[in-house]
Amino acid sequence: MVGSTPPKGRKKQRLLTVLALGAAGIATAFFATAGPVDPLRDTFFSLAIALDLLSIFLIWQALPLGTPWWLQGEEEWPHTTVRVEHPRARIRVRIRRALPETVNVLWGQSSTRFLLLLAAILAYGMTMLLFALRGSHPLVWGTWITGLILFCLAYIPTPRGRPRLTWETIGVLALLVVGWELRVYRLTDLPLQHHGDMASVGLQARALLRGEGPGWFSLGWATIPAWGFAHEALTLRLFGDSLLGLRMSAVLGGMISLLGVYALGKEGWIGRVGFLALAALTVDIVHIHFSRIPSYIDPLPWGVWGLYFLLRGYHRRAPWAWGLSGIALAVAMNMYFSGRLFLLVTLLFLPYLFVFHRESMRENREGVVVLLLGFLIGLGPMLLVILRHYGEYASRARFVLLTDPGVYHHLLQKYQATTFREVLLEQLQRTFLVFQYYGDTSTQFGWSHPMLPPLLAPFFLLGIGVATGKLQHEGNMLLSLWMITGLIVGSVLTVDAPFWPRLVVITPASALAVALGMVWLSEVGGLTPSPRRTAVWLLLFLGLIAVAGASSWKEYTRTYTAHAGVNDFTARIILTFGDRPACYVRGPHRLDEREFRFLLHNREDLEIRPERLEEDADRCAAHHGIVVAAPEQEGIVERIARMYPGGHMEAIQTPDGSVRVLVYHLP
To answer: Bridge partners of 651?
Structure first.
């Protein structure tokens, strides 16, 4: 690591890092055992927050004493001449980036690239014109896809040899297998609850597949662009129109984002950072849960890969990578609302590069133009949709901001506050302590523990210290922007912080921070290039990650196989009836509600209206149905049992007893 660091400096650096880890560990231990307190008025809680800040500050003090090459910006790399006198000496050279390409976008010397790019731009213009005149027409699809293909062909990279199978590759594949198993195990009943919002996502995807509604170039349910349901539509087609098909969209999105965080960690820092980030994200319970329910994780794979190609294009002066980044960011923007975060991070990152890495960005000027072109072509006709309906497109985001009067008054009552300052302080502490203390406020997850297990939270703080303490490094700056922007925009400024469906997009960033902290500790601890020592450190960290993940997984499987909603649990019971129709007693809920409509589609179930009890009960008996009712309708079920005696009555409930359903099997 710090071969250039003097021995005294290295000892001081090691001491500062150990003290930082100790301070973070003490604070995390306090938060894990604190229980419910009033943080703004509890002295020990304030001291724990101070220890968190102290750990980050100590890392800032350690960084100037020496950093490894992979934590240095390109401008910091020394130019060295190596003289080799021994005839059998071997030199290992790591090429950080390729030489800059000489071909520019419109004014370059490659006629083939120029013609392909010109054709792509013309196809894009034709797409926009056709959509403005004829709406979602097959010609619009044809010209848009043609433009995308031509754009990619204009910057197709040259193959650079076959990939080699290494121990790192084997480890990555093994972690991906573990990640797959954690995300498909008992997929249809873990979590047991099928949230109403997930049902709405499935219904919207089903409608798009059937050609219902205004089409793909429009705003769908909850003003999410119709393309935001493409993952679900694809897996409903591939795996069947069922709960399994719907949830597979999240599984595939989660797996692609796992591979993306490895690639991003390796490109932004070093292979060990990418590998440990992959390990941390593989067992991250937040990522696992949202990889098992649709919609919220949809923008994550596109955003992660968009940031990866952004860094790769910058490091290697590769216009094709810049172009793919633009396309990926455009797709992420058209998914769930949190996907717009990646565009915001990019818009903040580019000025940083222009200001602090001017020479490198001068070599990347073609890439920036290609990034913009890729973004516009990737958006396609959705750009016109957003411009035409921007008020509707941005309405959902406005309704959850603190600036909305309804949100503000809600939070005043929730926090028992009287001023905006008090509300903002509550939002800040609930957001920035989400990794150590606060749980999820959403009904889509509702995890009562913090986002990170206590074993990993101290390394997260070390990683945040490294990232924010060395902002000249472009990977550190990108990670810092990703984390801080995600927390502020996705939590501090929005209702009911911390609402994890809006924060799932920062789970790769938190995994990268954990990995960065671990690798920094190993470097300060005296790690040398020895493969044996590298393996020892990696095994130690993998063991910690595995223990933390196993504990969270055990709690997750115990809790989320026991709780469900009334409608979705009732629908699951009805699905066990086979061909026999259900006769649902109408009360607080009806069969036309979204959970029933998604789970029970293609079934011919009946409803029993209390005001027409005899008529509907006779119809149910004629179809040899099974009466199903909520506990509130127990009196009506007993009346049906007296009308048709000799049947079988039972009460079915969730394992935690939160939901109970009455079932009467007619004779």
So the answer is: 662
